[in-house]
Design a protein that fits this description.
The structure is a single chain. This protein has 2 domains: 140 residues, NAD(P)-binding Rossmann-like Domain (Rossmann fold, 3-Layer(aba) Sandwich); 174 residues, Dihydrodipicolinate Reductase, domain 2, CATH 3.30.360.10. Helices cover 37% and strands 25% of the residues. It has a 9-stranded mixed β-sheet. Strands 3-2-1-4-5-6 form a 6-stranded parallel β-sheet, sandwiched between helices. The protein starts with 5 loop residues before the first strand and ends with a strand.
Amino acid sequence: MSPETLGWGIIGAGDIADRITAPAMRAARGSRLLAVFRRDRQRAEEFAARHGAARAYDRVEDLLADPEVGAVYVATPVARHRPDTLAAAAARKHVLCEKPLALGVAEATAMRDACARAGVALMTCFYQRFNARHRKVKELLAEGAVGRATLVRMNFSGRYPDRPDAWRQDPDIAGGGSYMDNASHCVDLLRYLFGGVTEVAAFTDTLAARYAVEDTASSLLRLRGGAHAVVTSCWSTGDPDEGRNSMLEIHGTEGAILSAPLHDKFSRGTLRVVTAARDESFTFEASTHVALLEEFAAAVREGRAPAVTGDDGIAALRIVEAVYESSRARRVVTLE
């Protein structure tokens, strides 16, 4: 392996790692998947064989002791993010951690600080910033394509009924429900596009399920600069149309930007700019995760912070916590 190539280990070789991240590691420049950890040794070996990894471990300590592994992708349930990241930092491994970064701001701050003390990078896996459509949206906003942005609508929803042993439905493991899991992407994308959130008002409820986290969440956010953003995230809605259940709309004084679906990991979908003088559509096809991994490897190689940091993960969690506080207290929560 070239000294310029970052050797990866995966902690938590589950569905998202299997379908998306491990294949992206094979395709990304400057990265190579070397090792995987899963408690079930046979399944770890099967995963490694599918994705060309040389080694499989059933103890995370053994993966972290592997001298060829320079970075780890933490894709375990949220309650494991803090201990897995702290262990990786202690082993001097760079960390790419799934979102939400932790169960809350305090845990995420401890993760960031541990990585800083160890001199290793910490990147939050907010892949939607690497969607080519979303990058084009940022360009369109910067050039004033729709005038001053005044209103944003985002919906990231679907149907997620009660399932035995589903960790995302357990507040002690997941930290929250539909807003924590899905809308954490939305609030990070808002920060990427608009710079920050200053005030939050929200309702969160469990309307269609019996689990202990919310399945229906609606929030009204005031963005830095004054625009309003309405973010809805539900596990209680069965609409199959991705143009409605996974969408971004930005309305401005001169027109609108319409983009869907939010979640596509290959930037596919539609992006349309509509004004009185213009009706233009754009299409893309580019892997979000390949771009993310190439940015991470470049940051490690160049000794700089990655484009999405632990601080970004903390900032998103601070907004999510404000949403939950607003719902509990029935009041507007001020962040800035």
